[in-house]
Amino acid sequence: MPDSKRSKRDALIEEGTFNPTPDKVRDPKFRGGEFFDPHDAVQVKYEMLRRVSVDKLSITEAADEYGVSRPTYYQAKANFDTAGIAGLVQAKPGPRGPHKLDDDIMVFLRARLVPGEPVRARELATLVRNELNVELHPRTIERALKKTGR
């Protein structure tokens, strides 16, 4: 059951949709009402896109009115065109997937697997560190090998 005491601000922060610069949003709709919230980055971006598309506001004027740069507008537009409203949610920072595991390391790992025996990820991690000078977590090795069918 969701926590009814959680504020909208807390929810926006947790979901990664909190606009840290609500004071830069100058559209009057975002001042004084309850529906339009300048703290809601997704709502701000959507309304900015709508103003250009429907109200025919120039991109420069819209970016200025909503407190973003023109490149931010173009990125929001591209994300919206690709993924709809979900594209306006900022992606979580950080690497996507095991960024240290390249083809050479996978070949190295597979060459050391013994058919019929369990994967010894700790031993493999030590070998990779000692021979290739790459630090890998054993669980990363297990996931990568499982994904490739081993």
Please sum up the structure shown.
The protein is mainly α and 150 residues long. The protein has helices at 8-15, 41-53, 59-65, 70-83, 103-111, 121-132, 138-147. The protein folds into 2 domains: 8-88, no CATH class; 103-147.
Q: Which ranges are low-confidence, i.e. pLDDT below 50, for 5 or more consecutive residues? A: none
Distance between the termini: 39 Å
Largest sheet: none
Q: What Rg, in angstroms, do the CA atoms define? A: 24 Å
Write the layout of secondary structure elements.
Blueprint: H1 8-15, H2 41-53, H3 59-65, H4 70-83, H5 103-111, H6 121-132, H7 138-147
Description:
This protein has helices at 8-15, 41-53, 59-65, 70-83, 103-111, 121-132, 138-147. By secondary structure, it is mostly helical. The chain folds into 2 domains: 8-88, no CATH class; 103-147. Helix 2 (41-53) runs antiparallel to helix 3 and helix 6 crosses helix 7 (138-147).
Features:
150 residues, mainly alpha, 2 domains, 7 helices, 0% strand, elongated
